[in-house]
Amino acid sequence: MKVLVVDDQKINRTLPCVLLRQAGCDVEEVESGEAALAALHARPMDAVLLDISMPGLSGTEVCRRVRADPALAGLFVVAYTAHALPEERVEILAAGFDEVLIKPINRQRLLEAMRLPV
Known about the structure:
alpha/beta, 5-stranded parallel β-sheet
């Protein structure tokens, strides 16, 4: 599985990248919503782990653009966020995300969210 990990904080990209690589995924990482869209248009990906709160394009806006783009609309998109309230989860899923992963993460929750074998 090819996965793009998107977070403006390097430290927040490190753990999921390591865990996904250990699970056998081909992982690429970028630091912004703009860079995520560029990477998705440049190379095919199977899934995106996408931070919600980033400067510039938010993860929610990136997800909306992905869903509006016929070439990307079928991409599996997981929100990666510290926003844990139930109503926030509902809003995130309503924006087009397939799953929500709450920070801090662990291996099992990450693999479950990405629908990979635990």
